[in-house]
Design brief:
single chain; mainly alpha; about 120 residues; about 0% strand; 3 helices; elongated
Length: about 120
């Protein structure tokens, strides 16, 4: 799981997992493992939004209650902060979700026809 957080191949722990900021590479250049099974979907984004909101919203509320600035100023300050927090956390969480998927050999579900 640590390899996923660092953006490394979950199989060999060496090759880069990403080919860009959020785009997965097609395969690991170190071991040749294919990353075609990647299917994190919206999972990483949901976890990142929850975590960033859990950290930033209480700070914004305390800021608003203590200093009582105009609402536009609060929004001007805290929207970029929560956006930056989401952007910083999204790549590690995307790598983590892929690593967990590889560790558990997760794949799309299939129904067996038993007649």
């Amino acid at each position: 799981m640590g390899a996923g957080l660092r953006g490394r191949c979950p199989t060999c722990l060496e090759g880069p997992l990403f080919d860009g900021y959020l785009q997965f590479a097609s395969a690991c250049p170190a071991c040749g493992e294919s990353f075609d099974i990647e299917d994190a979907g919206d999972g990483p984004a949901v976890f990142v939004i929850f975590l960033a909101s859990f950290l930033v919203v209480p700070l914004a509320l305390v800021f608003q209650m203590m200093l009582e600035p105009p609402v536009w100023l609060t929004l001007l300050i805290w929207i970029p902060i929560i956006t930056a927090a989401c952007l910083v956390l999204l790549r590690p969480f995307r790598g983590l979700m892929f690593a967990v998927q590889v560790m558990n050999k997760a794949e799309q579900g299939r129904l067996d026809n038993e007649n």
